[in-house]
Amino acid sequence: MTGPSAGQRQTLRHRVAGLYRGTSQRARRFRYGLIGFDVLTVLIIVVTQPLPPSPVIVVVDLIIGLLVLADVSARTWIEPRPWRHLVRPSTLVDLAVVVSLLLAAVLPANLAFLRVLRLLRLLQSYQVLRDLRRETAFFRRNEDVIVSTITLVVFIFVVTAMVFALQHDINPAINSYLDALYFTVTTLTTTGFGDITLTGAGGRLLAVIIMVVGVALFLRLIQTVFRPRKVRHACQSCGLSRHDLDAVHCKHCGETLHIQTEGES
Fold first, then answer.
1. For the CA atoms of the chain, what is the radius of gyration?
2. DSSP element (H, E) containing 213
3. ∠ at Cα 118 (112, 121), nearest 5°?
4. Domain Potassium channel spans what residues (predicted)?
5. CA 219 to chain centre
6. Phi then psi for 89, rounded to 5 degrees?
7. 0.70 exceeded by the pTM?
């Protein structure tokens, strides 16, 4: 029994590439399916993060890990330079998630670092955003707010997982995932009630990171939400890429702009 010929492999590769990059209705449905899968895996990982390991969770982790591995393999296969694709940050993140999910399924203990590593899948939100930006006008119009929100949410859940994993066994104040989430949110909003504090040198260092990075991200989100909306359109003369919604001339150089609108007044 012989395997597929070189011509058959090339045809299959062309068909797979068409699904990932094509413009047909079938390709669009396939990419929307990938977006739905990415969103679903993020939700599952966030929901199961604080739960104790169980046979059901192990099976779900295994299935997600194999599906993500299949997606990474397909994307790498259709690339002209597969090795360059493998060393991209997004690909390395997906491979790290695959390793964490598959190891969690075969190891007798669900190690804390594996549970934190799984949350790297949240970074796939940016890939989802890129695909939706290409597919829908709504995401193009509200890109800044959505990106800032996703960045803040990713930071909150990753840091909460780290707080829970590193402090649960040594800090009597961190008894549940909700305690860790409560500490993270009160810290980055500078509320700081003081009823929960992190212990040890590692805990204090983590608290400093939350205060410095988290507060900056939170303020960035607030700034993005309340500042006047802008439209992205590169000026042909000076290159300024953000303008008022009703701009006719570039504020930087005075060049006449030709911004596409949807007919709104």
1. 23
2. none
3. 160
4. 153-226
5. 20
6. -55, -40
7. no
Every domain of the chain and the residues it spans: 7-140, 142-227, 230-265
Closest CA to 116 of 174, 158, 144, 155: 158
pLDDT tens by residue, 9-67: 778 888 888 888 877 888 888 878 887 887 787 777 777 766 777 788 888 888 888 88
Question: How many angstroms separate the first and last alpha carbons of the chain?
Answer: 68
Nearest of 224, 222, 198, 228 to residue 211 by alpha carbon: 198
Round to whole Å and give the CA distance between 177 and 156: 12
> Above 60 in pLDDT, residue 208?
yes
Q: Tokens 């608290």 appear where?
A: 207
Q: Please, are residues 188 and 211 in contact by the beta-carbon 8 Å criterion? A: yes
Print burial letters for 87-98: b (CB count within 10 Å at least 16), e (below 16).
Answer: eeeebebbeebb
Decide: 101 and 116 in contact? Cβ < 8 Å.
no
Task: Give the single-character DSSP code of 109.
Answer: S
CB within 8 Å of 109: residues ≥ 6 apart: 53
Q: Provide CATH code, domain 142-227.
A: 1.10.287.70
Measured on CA atoms in the order 194, 200, 202, 205, is the torsion positive or negative? Answer: positive
Structure tokens at 127: 């890939």
User: Is residue 180 a contact partner of residue 174, using CB atoms and an 8 Å limit?
Assistant: yes
| Residue 244 dihedral angles phi and psi, to the nearest 5° | -60, 155
pLDDT band at 3 (very low <50, low <70, confident <90, very high): low
Residue in 216, 178, 174, 169 with CA at minimum distance from that of residue 198:
174
List pLDDT tens digits, range 102-152.
Answer: 876 666 554 555 556 666 666 665 666 666 666 676 776 677 777 777 777
